[in-house]
Amino acid sequence: MRIAVAGATGNIGSLTVAALERGGHEVVRISRSLGADLSTGEGLDDALAGVAAVVDAISSPPVGEAETVEYFGTATANLLAAEQRAGVAHHVLLSIVGISRVDGNAHYAGKREQERLVADGPVPWTIVPATQFHDFAAMVASWTEQDGVATIAPLLVQPIAPADVADVLAEVAVGEPLGRHPDLAGPEPQDLVDMARRTNAARGRELKLVPTWSGIFGPAMAGEVLLPGEGARIAPTTFEEWLAGQR
Fold it and tell me: 111-161: per-residue pLDDT in tens?
């Protein structure tokens, strides 16, 4: 199949491209650096010519809620319109578990707008909600790191390996549209602070972590809010197995 991946140069996008190519599919990479701009729609018609399915794995720059919603909304609307013109038969959106249960988070608000546009849009679709990735904890700590100290929320998550997410996206893309896919998660719940500590240790980095709910992740995300629901699809790679590759 000829399949396009939006956000192809990002973490999950590049892994999805690799997974699809291993399966023998022809992959069209959609990104601004490659001449297709989701924010303006420029280059999308050419990129989607002959494409049967599109995987949307784009992310957003860290900005406020209104700007994030506008970015995701514009990009998604432009992509769906171009897909309709090209006769694309399947739109696959990577989303996040629990976003409907959390207010006050800019990124989650943007993902909710994406889900709304896809579900109401003209192209048959599958939305794949995934939990946080194994590398999420260290990334969050890096956002606040200063002079060897970082604050981080003690979130309860059930993290998943990025490569496992990419494999599922590739699998879904070559199949029939499913509507909402079951939640996708890793094998075991983890504490985000402990994940960050262990990741930094595996990478040989010393960083003091200060647990707090005063940052971008507040008390609304405490408890089991971010854990997968019943009937979730559990990916195979444990956090420990992923961590072994970081050493």
Answer: 999 999 999 999 999 999 999 999 999 999 999 999 999 999 999 999 999
Would you call 24 exposed, middle or buried from its count of C-beta atoms within 10 A (0-12, 13-18, 19+)? Answer: exposed
CA distance 107 to 38: 17
**pLDDT at residue 41, rounded to an integer:** 95
Phi, psi of 103, rounded to the nearest 5 degrees? -105, 160
DSSP 225: T
What single DSSP character describes residue 160?
B
Helix (H, G, I), strand (E, B) or coil at 79: helix
Which pLDDT does position 105 carry in this prediction?
87
Residues in contact with 106: Cβ distance below 8 Å, sequence separation at least 6, in sequence order = 62, 63, 64, 65, 67, 68, 69
Q: What is the pTM of this model?
A: 0.94
Please answer whether residues 169 and 55 qualify as being in contact, where contact means their C-beta atoms are separated by less than 8 angstroms. yes
124: its two tokens: 């048959």
What six digits make up the tokens of 121? 């849009």
DSSP state, residue 7: T
CB–CB of 130/185 below 8 Å? yes
The pLDDT of residue 243 = 94
